Structures are given as structure tokens and as C-alpha cells.
Amino acid sequence: xxxxxxxxxxxxxxxxxxxxxxxxxxxxxxxxxxxxxxxxxxxxxxxxxxxxxxxxxxxxxxxxxxxxxxxxxxxxxxxxxxxxxxxxxxxxxxxxxxxxxxxxx
Length: 105
Ligand SMILES: [Zn+2]
Fold this sequence. Notes:
Helix content: under 10%
Number of domains: 1
Mean pLDDT: 91
CATH class: Mainly Beta
Order of helices and strands: EEEEEEEEEEE
Strand content: over 45%
Bound molecules: zinc ion
Low-confidence stretches: none
CATH topology: SH3 type barrels
Strand order of the largest sheet: 6-3-2-1-7-8
């Protein structure tokens, strides 16, 4: 079972790699791959070939997904990068901030 620690629209802190210490919003989660797409993180240059002969090729900057292991969730309550726990309550599953104990969906 895949535990969905990170969800779309979460704010995360990158803890490793070339974008270490950057923060951004999760645009997309790829649970099958264990990756997330984070706004403004892990930009890769892509060369776009000209489609017509009179068109110039261009370079597009695009975010690429990074491993979930490389990010930490920023708690919406205490605004600190934190580890996440889970609780079952009122028939639902909530995530819990390990630092301040705040529960959130
Ligand atoms: Zn917290």
C-alpha cells in the first residue's frame, strides 16, 4: 500500500539534491513512482526542435518530478519542515505534524 504522505498543494522543503533548501508547492503526485512534481524545483532545460523550417528552436524550462524521499512537508500549522505521522479519527485518516501535533488532511 502506498501511504500518501505528500498530497497535491502541500508545501514542501527539498532536503537533498541541487535544489536543496528550496520550498515549493506540490503540483502533482506520482504515487506509483514515489515522486512529486514541485513548483519551481528541479528545472530541466528542454530543447524544442523547430517544427517548421522557418521556425527557430527554443529552450523550454520545465519542472521534473523528484523523489518523495527528497522532500519534507512543511506543516501548515507551525510552518516547519516536519516528519508526518498518521491518525485515524472520525472515520478518516489524518496526517499529524511530528513537531507541533497539528492534524490535517
Ligand atoms: Zn506543525
